[in-house]
Amino acid sequence: MFDVLIIGLGCAGYTAAIYAARYKLSTFIVGMEDGGLGLTAAEVGNWPGDIDVTGPDLMERFKKHATSFENVTHKLARVEKVDKTASGFRLTLDDGSSIDGKTVIFAMGSKKRHLGVPGEREFSGKGVTYCATCDAFFYRGKDVAVIGGGDSAVEGAAIAAQVARKVYLVHRRAQLRAEPYWVDRVKARSNVTFVLERQVKEILGDGKVAGIKLDKPFEGADTLKVDGVFIEIGADPATELSDQLGCKKDDRGYLLVDEAMATSVPGVFGAGDLTSGSNHFAQFTTAAGEGAVAANSAFSHLQEH
């Protein structure tokens, strides 16, 4: 029986584990991939104290710190089920094993959104990807399209422009929503073409991606020839497991937490991109802050009960 069960191996989860360990709580942290969405950040320019660090490097440091404590047990696995028990909670893992704990911290982050257009599923892994910063290297000297207008899309376009011959940045609105820093980076690249107020209706190809079809013409044509399509249109909170316990969500579908990161279920806390905390501002810094608060709250809950 662990004091705290943490689901999620990203910024929020590892921070929660560090704080829980320092509170001398026996801690079990589990997830499918070390680093989570933090791995997709090619450049992290706003982590205090690090002027230049990549997402993978930062996440590796988080993991090394968290697992340096003897009272932290780390496991790579999928959590299939979360149940309430008489003494706390039980996780059922994909290998059939179960883990018991007195408290739970949900820190699963979010899942990349899909366009839901013809060709997307067919060409997934064959030119369609959901991480421009991860996969841009494979399109050196080729033409690609990045779909979206937020930070991940514009950052992805900037990264892709370093290796691709041409980058089309396709966004359904007239204005980009990304941080001005990244917008300026993209505008400085001569090989980036802005395709605004357009939506992708279909991804074209024959065995692999060959182009995209737009909802209205751009420069006289409604198709663009590209070798790769990076879909960066945001993410949805990963609340499937918290739903199993009946934890309440806000009107946008995020796990509802109070200032203590406590959910509507006693002994259950949330941290990071899946919660309603931090004004839905999904950043490394906010995720770390929520992870720290969640661990502190779990400690206080155990002291009181």
Provide a descriptive summary of the structure in words.
It is a single chain. This protein folds into two domains: 2-112 and 235-304, FAD/NAD(P)-binding domain; 128-231, FAD/NAD(P)-binding domain. 24% of the residues lie in helices and 29% in strands. It has helices at residues 11-22, 55-66, 132-135, 151-160, 180-187, 240-244, 284-304, and strands spanning 2-7, 27-31, 72-76, 79-84, 89-93, 98-106, 110-112, 128-129, 143-147, 166-171, 192-196, 200-205, 209-218, 221-225, 228-231, 235-237, 268-270. β10 (166-171), α5 (180-187) and β11 (192-196) form a beta-alpha-beta unit. The mean pLDDT is 95.
Question: In terms of topology, how is this protein built?
Answer:
Blueprint: E1 2-7, H1 11-22, E2 27-31, H2 55-66, E3 72-76, E4 79-84, E5 89-93, E6 98-106, E7 110-112, E8 128-129, H3 132-135, E9 143-147, H4 151-160, E10 166-171, H5 180-187, E11 192-196, E12 200-205, E13 209-218, E14 221-225, E15 228-231, E16 235-237, H6 240-244, E17 268-270, H7 284-304
Parallel strand pairs: 1-2, 1-6, 2-3, 6-17, 8-15, 9-10, 9-15, 10-11
Antiparallel strand pairs: 4-5, 5-6, 7-16, 12-13, 13-14
Helix pairs in contact: 1-2, 1-7, 4-5
